[in-house]
Write a structure and sequence with these properties.
Blueprint (H helix, E strand, L loop, with lengths): L16 E4 L3 H12 L4 E4 L15 E2 L11 H17 L4 E11 L6 H14 L9 E4 H7 L8 E12 L2 H14 L3 E3 L2 E9 L2 E9 L8 E4 L2 E4 L5 H4 L15 E8 L9 E5 L6 E7 L2 E5 L3 E2 L11 H14 L10 E9 L17 E4 L8 E5 L6 H15 L24 H11 L4 H11 L3 H6 L4 H4 L11 H9 L5 H7 L13 H13 L3 H15 L5 H7 L5 H6 L1
Parallel strand pairs: 1-2, 1-11, 2-7, 4-13, 11-19
Antiparallel strand pairs: 3-6, 4-6, 5-6, 8-9, 9-10, 12-15, 12-16, 12-17, 13-14, 14-15, 18-19
Helix pairs in contact: 1-5, 1-8, 9-10, 15-16
Bound molecules: flavin-adenine dinucleotide.
């Protein structure tokens, strides 16, 4: 069971390390630190993985593009991590073939692409994935008949990896941290970092689930601020920080669309005509993910939306490279946007800022015991965590102990180096639930799919409550009992992944609330409030002109009818 700790008791608890932010990096740090024996508090103002981690392109990649900026070390590190993640989380990270079409007049011609491909292969000499192939024009069109043939010279085919749901990767890391003894506290905001006599001593926390509960101060000798794009916000008031920011984020937006004429079977990585910037069209979650953009961002980090200009750009570039697609706004299921937590640079091209992470030691600014994580990618979260925990151990005056995360499986992994494909085949054949649901359970929870099934003791818990994903009722109970979910939004957006289907989980949200009413004792008022909060949350992903037509506040009568 993953019960929420009693908020008011936290000041009496002894911690070695407070990790602020339960995105992929914070969850990874907490897991590594707890496994090395530190007493850890992992705290987030929202849910696990609800920040930037949810709003990425979802690739586990070396970053072919970073080669152009001479970031050889970063590419090598990322490729090594890609290989590790394919091995240690095979249920969440899978190989992904990508095609790069090359056109007459492109900034990057065949020789440059070929050189990049050779370097990429060389830097991943120890990989399990296939090496690249250069394709002729005819071979390219045979592979992807929908490609724009005008000026097409050929293509490069290569392999990277995809984490369909980085939200789940963050959740599994947080659960592993909790299993190793870390305290996990979501919906608690750090109001300020407590600094006394030049040392960080703790954090002041506000409980966002209990209105009116006063703030508490929780103490620890080391604090790691890994709040993604919110890093500077969290540092407000810390001596030595003003006015220079650590971060200068850029916004990236994505469109999610259904199948379309000429849609690729593999991912497409094409250069945009407008600005030469590469963008992706990726088969994802039975839909297509199209993105991304890279624009300076200075607004409110808590309500990010794709702008009209970004939507126009991504639609136009997709229709250019796949002319039969004919995509318009009507084809868009939803959009999403995130801000990359990149290091602050005073000016320059957004795409050229390093994607390497830095661990800022505030000892430099006169505050010891405090570190902030700047930058980082999903791909390198595990290695970032190793570095951060090494630094924490040093700051605590402890002997350095080796990280175990390279070898230790995450909760859903089928044993060390286990065969996930074999597990999946057997599970689908033997689970007794329809194939669609069984596949969804295996791909979402790995071997813990068996634990979900163990809760499916009644018909409604074995039944799917969402046609698009095949998710079953028992998952709602599992999320609250075993995966630290606090709200219906957590369940739909970051546990069952129902919220990322074509309808954004609208409709399924009411059925899920009804399951919680029947099996968890939710009263009608709570069901209404949870569904309301969920619909308010997903509103930002809908195109503006859709909002009025889809949103209907559920009523008590709706609940009665279920
Ligand atoms: C458009 C885009 C595309 C990307 N594509 C890729 C990709 O394909 N591959 C890849 O490897 N990387 C990609 N990235 C980068 C990657 O997604 C991020 O670097 C990574 O997710 C950052 O994780 P994080 O844990 O550091 O931050 P976040 O996930 O943002 O987590 C920070 C957490 O801190 C919490 N927090 C904030 N303030 C407070 C407070 N006051 N108190 C308590 N908690 C707080 C937030 O709620 C949040 O959950 C992409 C990023 C973007 C924006």
């Amino acid at each position: 069971m993953t019960a929420r700790p009693v908020f008011a008791n936290l000041p009496d608890r002894a911690f070695d390390l407070i990790v602020i932010g339960a995105g992929i990096n914070g969850a990874g740090i907490a897991r590594d630190a707890a496994a090395r024996g530190l007493r850890v508090l992992l705290v987030d103002k929202g849910d696990i993985g609800g920040g930037t981690t949810s709003w990425s392109t979802r690739l586990i990649h070396g970053g072919l593009r970073y080669l152009e900026h001479g970031e050889i070390g970063l590419v090598r590190e990322s490729l090594r991590e890609r290989e590790r993640l394919l091995r240690i989380v095979p249920h969440l990270v899978r190989p992904l073939p990508l095609l790069i079409p090359i056109y007459t007049g492109d900034q990057r011609g065949p020789w440059l692409i070929r050189a990049g491909m050779l370097a990429y292969d060389l830097l991943s000499y120890d990989k399990s994935l296939a090496r690249h192939e250069m394709l002729s024009r005819a071979e390219s069109l045979a592979r992807l008949p929908g490609l724009n043939p005008d000026g097409l010279r050929g293509a490069a085919l290569y392999y990277d990896a995809q984490v369909e749901f980085p939200e789940r990767l963050a959740v599994e890391n947080a659960l592993a941290a909790s299993a190793a003894g870390a305290t996990l506290l979501t919906y608690a905001r750090v109001e300020r970092i407590v600094v006394e006599a030049g040392r960080a001593r703790g954090v002041e926390l506000v409980d966002l689930l209990q209105a009116g509960a006063g703030p508490v101060v929780v103490r620890a000798p080391v604090i790691i601020n890994v709040a993604g794009p919110w890093v500077d916000e969290v540092l407000a008031g810390v001596p030595g920080r003003e006015p220079a920011p650590l971060l200068g984020g850029t916004k990236g937006s994505h469109l999610v669309v259904g199948g379309f004429a000429g849609a690729p079977d593999q991912a497409l990585y094409a250069a945009a005509r407008e600005d030469g910037r590469p963008f992706f069209i990726i088969p994802w979650n039975d839909q297509y993910l199209i993105g991304t953009t890279d624009v300076w961002f200075h607004g409110d980090l808590d309500c990010l939306v794709a702008s009209e200009a970004e939507i126009d750009y991504l639609l136009a570039e997709t229709n250019r490279v796949i002319p039969g697609a004919g995509l318009s706004r009507a084809a868009i299921h939803y959009t999403y946007a995130g801000v990359r937590p990149l290091p602050f640079v005073p000016a320059g091209r957004a795409g050229a800022i390093t994607r390497r992470h830095l661990l800022h030691d505030h000892g430099r600014d006169g505050v010891t015991g405090l570190f902030s994580v700047v930058g980082g990618k999903l791909t390198t979260y595990r290695e970032l965590a190793v570095h951060a925990v090494d630094r924490a151990q040093r700051a605590l005056g402890l002997p350095l102990t080796p990280s175990t995360t390279e070898r230790t499986p995450l909760p859903g992994t089928p044993g060390a180096d286990g065969d996930f494909a074999l597990f999946r085949r057997r599970f689908v054949a033997e689970s007794g639930v329809p194939e669609r649901s069984a596949g969804h359970l295996a791909d979402t929870y790995g071997v813990r799919a068996n634990d979900v099934l163990a809760l499916a003791t009644t018909d409604d818990l074995r039944r799917s409550f969402d046609d698009a994903s095949g998710a079953i009722g028992a998952e709602v109970l599992f999320a609250f009992a075993h995966e630290a979910a606090q709200t219906l939004t957590d369940v739909l957006m970051r546990r069952t992944m129902v919220g990322l289907g074509p309808e954004l989980g609208i409709g399924a949200d009411q059925v899920a609330a009804d399951i919680a009413a029947r099996h968890l004792g939710w009263e009608r008022g709570r069901c209404i409030q949870e569904v309301d909060a969920y619909r308010a949350y997903v509103e930002r992903f809908r195109l503006r002109h859709h909002v009025a037509s889809w949103y209907k506040r559920p009523t008590a009568a709706d609940s009665d009818q279920q």
